[in-house]
Structures
1.
Amino acid sequence: MTRAGGRAGARVEPSPLGAIPPLLLVPAALAVVVLVLPLAALVARVDWSTLAADVTSPEAIDALRLSLVTGALATIGCLVVGVPLALVIARATPRVAGWLRALVTIPLVLPPMVGGIALLFLLGRTGLVGQWLDAGLGLRLPFTTAAVVIAQAFVALPFLVLAVEGTVRSAGTRYEQAAATLGAGRWTTFRRVTLPLAAPGLVAGTVLCFARALGEFGATALFAGNAAGTTRTMPLAIYTAFNGSGVGQGAAVALSLLLLVVAIVILVLVRGWRPGSVG
């Protein structure tokens, strides 16, 4: 009786959804439908009997290999320059941090095609920097595999910087100040304190950066071109297929499904790495 009475008198926590007006649940459900139906249509269009053959065709394998290699290289490049930039933004004055954060955000709101044109005007044979690379080193970047990496890094860098910067900024400076008080140098503090603090954002940002690089299309098409085996990544192979040449449309649908699976895996990885406390 006592146990039953205790259960009966236990307080039931209200659902957070109870604070939302019921009328708003209708457009929320519609938004879910808008997100799910195109993905369901893609899965429904897959020819499962030829899926293995489509994914393992030479053209598809080349596009997949190139996407993975260039995506990995672009992500490494973003880590090298993006983590220091994220730390600077996180520890800068509000005014400086605001300007730098706005600058980092530009590739997110800029149409990828415009990014490709900007890179072409910067690094092309007659570009601002490209003309000097061509004249002095004989180095021509446009329409090469290196151009793919540069284009992917340009559009993917903000995902890494913003993720790391947000994590470090929210952690504050008390742990770093405590390490300095105990006599730790700047490099030791960075290695033993700052990096562990940034780890959740670093992992999430790296995964999102790689995913964005893997799906890059517009800047790559304009700056690197669409040459099979050299610059034709998976998104470009899908585009080429649906325009009637190169990879068959069945392979295009199969590669689209593969990108969908990669996106789901990335979502799972990101959800498993939430910013935590320092123990």
2.
Amino acid sequence: MTTRNGLAGDEVISALQKSIRRGKEKDACEFAYEMYITSPQFEEKLWRHLLAISVEDIGMGNPIAALMINNLNMMRKEFQYNESDRAMFFFHAIRYLCGSEKDRSSDLLKNIVIKSFAMGYVPEIPDIALDKHTTRGQEMGRGSEHFLHEASKVIPQAKVENDYKEQYEEIIKKYDPNHVVPSTFVFNPWQV
């Protein structure tokens, strides 16, 4: 595909992304504008790339970037393709991305996992995954107390100003699922 001004579409897309990676705001905006004026379909491709870039190249450098770009993408749809205000949203998105601290580790991790699987790697189920929500965990007798103290452990644990864990611990000491009121709502206990 070629653009409105005869440039190779794949090269324009590549130049857009490389410009954003290097924080070259004006260059990135020029390549984006070339995509925009080519066609509404190429504008869609532009936004798909901006969304991907917000995770692939910005990533943990600015975790809010993906939300910002998605919101700008939604906002631009309130304007017709031929309204100049519509273009303002990708200009703003690019400025935001160029100015953000960048981190490519999500993409690197994705590629590590994909290529490892392609070479035959299969993950092993760790013991911590076997809890009251799995068949093997139930067969091992792992119930709510195990879940409270082991399977629901989070790292790092935020400092909280409540005693809900202690309250729940007291509840499960008294709770018997075989002796509940008839109107008790029953949740599906299975993960899949």
3.
Amino acid sequence: MTQHAREAITGGTAWPARYTYVPALRVGNLVFISGTTGTDDDNRIVAPGDIVEQTRQIFRKFERLLKAAGGSCQDIVQTVDYITTTENYKATAAVRREFFKGAQPTSTGVLVAGLLRDGAAIEISAVAVLEG
């Protein structure tokens, strides 16, 4: 089996070595982004209870990660949304349009009983394909 080069992407943020995963991983021209919640740089949930603002923060983090890899949110081809409530979930579509700018990815939404991160209303993972 061929071993592909793997590059961890942290987007310039400090990433504790004790974690058993990375925020994003580049393999060839693919970037796999771990499930991400709407936390700020101090690892606090932004806008507790506000799924729209948490979604916006998640996509800001995706943009930072993808920029570090030479891409942008427009390179995302798949997302999976894990949500704890359907209240205002439809409003997150406007946030997606802000970041995707017409380059919509495939997407799956999953309603869950809870997320590991207290206060998180949504967690999103993604896959992006970069040029060359």
4.
Amino acid sequence: MNIVLLDSGTLPTPLTAPAWTSEWSARPATRAADVVHALEDAAVAITNKVPIRAADLERLPKLRFICVAATGFDCVDVDACRESGVIVSNVPGYSAQSVSEWALASIFALRRNLFAYRDAARLAWPASAHFCVHNAPILDIAGSTLGIVGRGAIGNSLARLARAVGMNVIFAEHRGRPTVREGFTPFDELVRSADVLSLHCPLTEATRNLIDAATLRAMKRGTLLVNSARGGLVDSTALVDALTTGHLGGAALDVLPQEPPDPDEPLLTCAHPNLIVTPHISWAATNAANRLNAGIEANLAAFHAGAPINVVNGA
């Protein structure tokens, strides 16, 4: 069985070829335009973020299985795969601890304006008339309200961590849902009441630009936004406007709408002191990377045995 890994350079720990495979190719990176060429003889594809679309599938008659080396699988056209008889599996839950810890660390940094005070230590403190400098808000986490959008493994893990440090946690119901499930809060109500809004939901057509200008305006002044899910959930230009006008107190982002981003991406050129942008690494703690590789290996073995697991495009 021919297996091709399309973007091995995204994996912190190298993936080992299964003993049973007849041919293994680990490509450091693959351009979207080269997907068909890379997979033309493959029965199995592994992709972290390289897109595999309907037009590609039409030209890949040998392809039988796609293992997404991640939890989110929006890089693959799962509907087209279903129609073509290609099974798609993901690796759920491997990064829940890693991503939720990144989110909580970001909340601490934003609530206490740590990056502004890091700069103040170099610039303002030496010239201060006092032993300390107060030039940005410092807010405790305990007693604040955390609104979480998405109640999967990561959202639930963050809720557990947040409650442990005294935060009040509420989960958002799907926007526009006519009935509200027990344990959830209407989306618009949550947006208005949260001190911190953290995103942990998939990117779909329904959630694209979920956080747009209108949603940002509905937030309380000083609200913090955290996004470690998908960049397309947030309108970058609207977020920059909300930060520069002072309506939002800060934001921490591990994802952007385009990755890698253009150098002129608004969120990379914004100089707001309480804006944190990291290059999509919240998932990549060593422990999580090891769990990811184990999950990929389990998915491959299950498919090889004829009993695929973690299938995301079943009937």
